[in-house]
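Sequence only, no structure available. Ideas?
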Amino acid sequence: MKKKMTMTYLTLLIMAIFIAGCTSNVEDAMTDENTEPQEENTAVADENNEKTEETSREDEPVVEEAASQTKDDLFSGYEQIEVDGGDLSGDRESSVAVDIGFGDREYWAFTNEYGQLVRVVAKEIILQDDNTEPVLSNGRYFSDEAKVPGVESDVLDEGHIIADSLGGVSNAYNITPQESTLNRHGDQAYMEDVIRDAGGATDFEAVISYPDTDTQIPSEYQYSYTINGNEVVDTFENVNPDEVNESLGLTNNESSDSDGSSSKQEGDVSSVDANGNGQVTIQEAKDAGFTMPIREDHWLYPYMRDNDGDGMVGE
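Reply:
I predicted one. C-alpha cells follow.
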C-alpha cells in the first residue's frame, strides 16, 4: 500500500512538470508570433522611409536642372560677351549675347551672323531711378550713344531699343539708326511712355527686322510686353509717321468741331503736350480743354495714339 502511494505521487509530479513545460512553450510561441509581425512592420516602414528619402533626393536637382536648361536655351548658339554700357563704338560682333541693362538689370541683346541687332529680351523692365543711380542732368546714364553705321544721317537718330528711362545702356547692342520723328514723337516714343506710366513692364521682347544682310538700319520693329496683366504688341516700320499720315490723307482734311470751328486748324502742340515729349495723351488733351473724342481730321490727332485704328481717340 505504501509502495502504491509512492508511485501515485511520482506520477502526479511528472504530470505537473509536463504541464508546466507545455504552458511555457505555448507562451513562448505566442510571444514569438506577436513579435514577428512588429519586426516585419518596422522593416516595411524603414523601407518606405528609405524610398521616400530617395525619391526626395531624386526630385531636388530636377528644378535646378530645368531652370538651367531654360537659360541654356536662351543663349543656345550665342557667345555671351561683356561690353561697356558707354562704349561709343558702333561695331557689333556676330552671334553674341550682351547684357544691355544698366546696373543689376538683365536686358539681353542678341546679334545674328551678320552682326545685326535682331532681338532684345528682358524678364522685367525696371525704370531709371534718379535718386539712387548716376543719372546725368540730361536724364541719361551716358553723355552720348554708340555710332552705329547709319546714324550719321540727318533723318536718323541713335535710337535706343530700351531707353535710358527704362534702364537701358548706350552701346551698339542697344542702339539702331531710327527715323527721328518715329523715335521722338511716334510709336517708339509712345511705347516708352506707356511703360513709364505703368511703372515698368514684364516679359519684354523686341524683334528687329532688316531689308537685307548688309545694312544696320532696321526696316521694322516689333515690341511685345506685359503691363498690369495685359499683353501689348506694337509693330511699326522705321519711317516718318507724319509722312505716312500725309500719304494716307490724314493731315489735310478739314471738318467742323462741335462748336462749329474748323477742327483741322493748326494749334501749338506744346501748349497741350504737358511733358514736352511730343506725344499728347488723352488726359493732356482734356486738361487743355479739348472734348473727346479727337477724330482723325483734328490737328491733334497725329500727336495722339489711336489704339484700335478707328480714326478716333478717347471715344
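The two ends are 133 Å apart (CA to CA).
Hope that gets you unstuck.
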